[in-house]
Recover the amino acids of this structure.
C-alpha cells in the first residue's frame, strides 16, 4: 500500500523481497524510516540496478509525481520530495523539466533480482475511491520463468519466517 507521495505504508513479505529486500521489512511502520519509492528509485543504487527497464519506469514515476503535484499544489512534503530529487539526481531533474504528466496504473517491471535472477512482472495500481491518498500496487508474473522465480522467492521468505512463527505460536498452543 502506497501513499500519494509514493511512501510505503505496508507491504507483504514477497513484494518486499522482490523490490526492496535490502530495506528492513518493518520500516513502513516507523515514520522516520518509512521507505519512499521515488527516493529509492532515484537515489538508491540497489533499487536502480534492480530494474532492467529503469529509464522507462523513471519517466512513469516522474510523470506521476507531476500529476500528484498538480492535484495537491499545497502539499509541502510533496514539494520537498520533488525538490530533493531534483537536487540530488540529474536524471530526475531532466525528466521533471520535460513536463510529462500521467497516471501510473499499469505497466511492466523487468527486474534483475539479486536472489532469483530475471523476473518480469506486470504491475497494476489499484486506486482506492474511498481513500484517494492510498494506492495498492499488485505484481503478477508475466511468463512462466518469472512465475517460477516468484514462487522460489516466496518459498525463501516463508522458510525465513517459520522459526519466528513457530516461536510466536508455541506459547498459545501450550496455553490451550
Amino acid at each position: 500500500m502506497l501513499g500519494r507521495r509514493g511512501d510505503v505504508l505496508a507491504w507483504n513479505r514477497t513484494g518486499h523481497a522482490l523490490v526492496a529486500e535490502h530495506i528492513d521489512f518493518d520500516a513502513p511502520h516507523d515514520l522516520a524510516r518509512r521507505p519512499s519509492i521515488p527516493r529509492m528509485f532515484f537515489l538508491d543504487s540497489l533499487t536502480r540496478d534492480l530494474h532492467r527497464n529503469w529509464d522507462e519506469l523513471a519517466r512513469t514515476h516522474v510523470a506521476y509525481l507531476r500529476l500528484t503535484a498538480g492535484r495537491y499544489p499545497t502539499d509541502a512534503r510533496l514539494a520537498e520530495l520533488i525538490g530533493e530529487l531534483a537536487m540530488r539526481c540529474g536524471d530526475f531533474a531532466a525528466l521533471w523539466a520535460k513536463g510529462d504528466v500521467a497516471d501510473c496504473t499499469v505497466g511492466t517491471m523487468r527486474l534483475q533480482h539479486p536472489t532469483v535472477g530475471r523476473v518480469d512482472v506486470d504491475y497494476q495500481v489499484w486506486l482506492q475511491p474511498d481513500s484517494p491518498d492510498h494506492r495498492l500496487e499488485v505484481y503478477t508474473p508475466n511468463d512462466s520463468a518469472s512465475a517460477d522465480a516468484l514462487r522460489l522467492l516466496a518459498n525463501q521468505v516463508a522458510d525465513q519466517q517459520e522459526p519466528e512463527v513457530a516461536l510466536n505460536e508455541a506459547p498459545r498452543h501450550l496455553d490451550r
Remarks:
- The two ends are 35 Å apart (CA to CA).
